[in-house]
Amino acid sequence: MQAKRILLVIGGGVAAYKTLELIRRLREQGARVRAVLTAAGKQFVTPLSVASLAGSPVFDDLFSLTDETEIGHIQISREADLVVVAPATADLLAKMAQGHADDLASTLLLATDKKILVAPAMNLRMWLHPATRRNVALLRGDGVIFVGPEEGDMACGEYGPGRMSEPAAILAAIDAALRGDTTIPLPGGVLGLAGRRVVVTSGPTHEPIDPVRYLGNRSSGKQGHAIAAAAARAGAEVVLVSGPVELQDPPGVATRHVSTAAEMLAAVEAALPADIFIAAAAVSDWRVGEIAAQKLKKGGAPTALPLVENPDILALLAQRQEARPRLVVGFAAETENLLDNAQAKLARKNCDVIVANDVGDKAAGVMGEEENQVTIVTRGGTQTWPRLRKEHVALKLIAYLSKLLEGRGDA
Ligand code: CTP
Q: pTM for the full model?
């Protein structure tokens, strides 16, 4: 925490009194706090008490000439190491999710290039309302970190989820957030992939054994779907070929649903030509040679299940003579010799980039998780990225690929 700069946005909720304690604790641990009060926040705590505890002036007005000449709102939002919103009201979350910028707090939250941590506080019905659920999902997708809310008695006399987390819990979440990379990467500069076509595979494949059973794997599709969403945000026309997953189709992406590796290959080929092909799917290496026409019965357990190799979609795309995408990107989950194996895979499959993660003996700890730690391997070298949320890995990857496509890459 020592010398870390926290920009604290205080929204209008009864829980704002707990934020005063949070400021005191942050400063005790050596952090520097700059506080911004919303108009509603001022109804619950006074600028004077916030300023006294923070040891610096409180900002509350977007159009204050003094504030703007001394320090502009963009500067306030950028010079922080982390932005914290506590209490984060339903209205503040809605504004953030929709990108409103009609007061100082919402403008800072839109202008910042730093991670945002929110501590929601509201009545339980407001927290459980579908509108708030949607906003929370959008914000999580944008990489916003949530702490709480907790379940308990509320100031309004009801009981349920909606209480702001205690200062100690918020402090611990701030500490954890500060340990990671707090800068949010821009997706490929401004619309870095406008006019480009990107095809992404994601999720597992299901290879049928009989009409009800299949061979599958634990892939959740989170990383591949996040990549498709990031490419769309960067302005690309995106086709996502998805195996069976429990995720929503990303907005602005043409999603094709498939089940087997053979269907995935056919859908990928139908989506060509493309500038970039990203193979994020965990394609089953094998399928069952002869699929039983009827459900296999309990008594007649097959003594063997002969498997045949599936087409390697990544290798086929990378080795195409005609209509080869300019950039072919593969994934590699390695358990040992990460870099050597990734380099070998790059050469063997003829791809341009391998996104490698060392899963050690914890493959299940990456699959389905929210975070990923990857190393980018090209013929020119390697770079290891910090552990990031999968959405951020996706944005960083898209930014990296759009540079590579323009010949500005360092790879
Ligand atoms: N892949 C694919 N089609 C397959 C198998 C894999 O497109 N039939 C792609 C995955 O989407 C991923 C990469 O290839 O981008 C992963 O390769 P991986 O399965 O790890 O490597 P293998 O070729 O199976 O080699 P090995 O099992 O020896 O690591």
A: 0.61
Measured distance between the N- and C-terminal CA atoms of the chain, rounded to whole angstroms = 35
- Residue 19 carries which DSSP code? H
How far is ligand 1, taken at its centre, from the CA of residue 270, in Å? 20
Residue of the CA atom closest to atom 28 of ligand 1: 345
Give the closest residue (by CA) to ligand 1 atom 27. Answer: 285
283 close to ligand 1 (CB < 6 Angstrom): yes
- Closest atom, ligand 1, to C-alpha of 349: 23
d(CA 331, CA 344): 13
Asked if 231 and 240 touch (Cβ cutoff 8 Å), the reply is: no
**Is residue 328 within 6 Å of ligand 1 at its C-beta?**
no
Section 15-43 average pLDDT: 95
User: Is the shortest distance between the CB of 148 and ligand 1 below 6 Å?
Assistant: no
The rounded distance, in Å, linking the Cα atoms of 79 and 49 is 23
Which CATH code is given to the segment(s) 5-178? 3.40.50.1950
pLDDT single digits (tens) 273-309: 999 999 999 999 999 999 999 998 888 778 889 999 9
Ligand 1 nearest-atom number relative to CA 331: 15
Burial 162-198 (b: 16+ CB within 10 A, else e): bbbbbbeebbebbeebbebebebbebbeeebbeebbb
Identify the band that residue 369 occupies on the pLDDT scale cut at 50, 70 and 90.
confident
Alpha-carbon distance of 345 to 338, in angstroms, equals: 10
- Give the phi and the psi of residue 116 in degrees, each rounded to 5: -120, 130
Atom number, ligand 1, closest to the C-alpha of residue 355: 15
What single DSSP character describes residue 248? P
**Ranges of CATH 3.40.50.1950 domains, the chain:** 5-178
Establish whether residue 221 lines the binding site of ligand 1, counting it when its CB lies within 6 angstroms of any ligand atom: no
Comma-separated ranges of CATH 3.40.50.10300 domains in the chain = 197-291+301-405
Does 281 sit in the ligand 1 pocket, CB within 6 Å? yes
- Give residue 62's pLDDT: 63
What percent of the chain shows pLDDT beyond 90? 65
- Assess whether 156 carries a catalytic annotation: yes
H or E stretch at 160: strand 159-163
Cα(332) to ligand 1 centroid in Å equals 7
What is the topology classification, in CATH, of domain 197-291+301-405?
Rossmann fold (3.40.50)
Looking at residue 361, its pLDDT comes to 57
What is the three-class DSSP state of 106?
helix
